[in-house]
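Researcher: Next entry in the queue.
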Amino acid sequence: MVLTFTAILLGLLALVRPLQKNNFYILHSAIVILSAYYVQTHYFTVTPFAAKTILLFLVFHLVSINLTTMLAYYIDKRAAVRHKWRVPENTLHTLEFLGGWIGAFAAQKIFRHKTVKKSYRQIFFLMIISEIAAIWIILKYLQLI
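Model: Structure for this entry, 145 residues:
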């Protein structure tokens, strides 16, 4: 399981250049890999790249990316209040596209952050639509729909 998760996350890191500069993605990768290591050593072992392993990866990924996105919004909100260095919007949008839009939406409501700026909101909803379209294309390619 750890091998599979590491291969997927580091493969994405190597292939997608903007992720290499995204510290929150690196944090997310570390959380997923350490969680997989904990589960694998304490509960059960699965075959690398098996269907069960991929499904576990999706669960771990979605939980971790949403928590990481909420953390990024929290850090950006604190920086905005203190007039300090801000988290780039491109970083936030990348996290949203990777599946963290639910965490982003929750963080926007909880922290009351990024709710007024119209251009940001438009790109935020574009990220949601893009992710849904990407999932639909993947499911269509795999002939699951």
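Model: DSSP finds six helices and no strands in the chain.
Researcher: Noted, moving on.
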